[in-house]
Write a structure and sequence with these properties.
Elements lengths: L17 H16 L8 H8 L3 H13 L3 E4 L3 E4 L4 E4 L5 H7 L4 E12 L2 H7 L6 E11 L2 E11 L6 H4 L6 H7 L7 E10 L2 H7 L6 E10 L5 E10 L3 E4 L7
Parallel strand pairs: 3-10
Antiparallel strand pairs: 1-2, 4-5, 5-6, 6-9, 7-8, 8-9
Helix pairs in contact: 1-3, 2-3
Length: 248
């Protein structure tokens, strides 16, 4: 088995783990096969590269985690679609995806009023026990689930929200056009996380795969919180980018 000539990811001492060398070689095959093509069985790849099946399995597992391959139980492993790269902004999810040439949709899981616990009340600057509107929705791109979004809003401020909103549509667009809400700023934190069994089932993903957890508080021009949003995204299907400028 020949080791790839490039040094990306190769330690300075030059000793390359076998699985990493196999991973690099499989990446070369992926580029030739194209999206949707089936990868040869592990047994065949192990024979072809002259390594153990466990070595091939580890290489493929990392490529699945990175979103380069997609494993389907009972069917095999396939070259995955490129990741969807979503801009970090206060724009509507619907508008952002359509601008990138994808068709957005949402599957409504929960649309209800619940009392705010102490943590949620502090985030929204309301009294503990005050009613909040809770929307939980699976976010989809071209029919594929990519995220699970849980949004809480003060019910006292938005008492008619559940009466007029189509929960499968754009919350931002409805609040802007129908309720006159102005979005001024948001604080967003991004972490890595693992999905719970329930979340993995809703997102149709393996609970062992890493997820991107995003926590956001949005505010209006007066600084009053509008919403708290917890979004869990499939790390194998979506990435995020931000445009940064230097302070002057």
């Amino acid at each position: 088995m020949s080791v790839p000539s490039h040094r990306s990811g190769i330690p300075d001492h030059g000793r390359v783990p076998k699985y990493y060398a196999v991973k690099a070689l499989i990446l070369g095959e992926i580029a030739e096969l194209g999206v949707g093509a089936s990868l040869p069985p592990e047994r065949d790849l192990a024979t072809h590269y002259g390594v153990a099946r466990s070595t091939v399995r580890q290489a493929i597992s990392e490529l699945v985690i990175e979103g380069r391959l997609a494993a389907q139980r009972g069917r095999g492993t396939f070259v995955a679609e490129p990741k969807l790269i979503h801009p970090l902004s206060l724009a509507s999810y619907t508008e952002s995806l359509r601008a990138m040439g994808h068709e957005p949709s949402r599957l409504v899981i929960t649309a209800e009023e619940v009392p705010a616990d102490d943590e949620l009340a502090a985030a929204l600057e309301i009294k503990p026990g005050a009613p909040v509107v809770h929307l939980e929705r699976v976010l989809r791109a071209d029919g594929e689930p990519i995220g699970l979004e849980s949004t809480h809003l003060p019910a006292e401020r938005f008492p008619t929200l559940l009466d007029g909103l189509d929960p499968s549509g754009s919350l931002y667009r409805y609040m802007q056009d129908e309720l006159g809400v102005v979005w001024a700023e948001a604080t967003e934190r991004i972490e890595t996380a693992l999905a719970s069994p329930r979340e993995a089932l809703l997102l149709q993903t393996n609970p062992a795969l890493p997820m991107l957890l995003m926590l956001r508080i949005s505010r209006d021009p007066s600084g009053t919180p509008i919403e708290r949003v917890r979004s869990l995204y499939r790390g194998d299907r979506i990435g995020f980018e931000a445009h940064l400028t230097a302070k002057r």
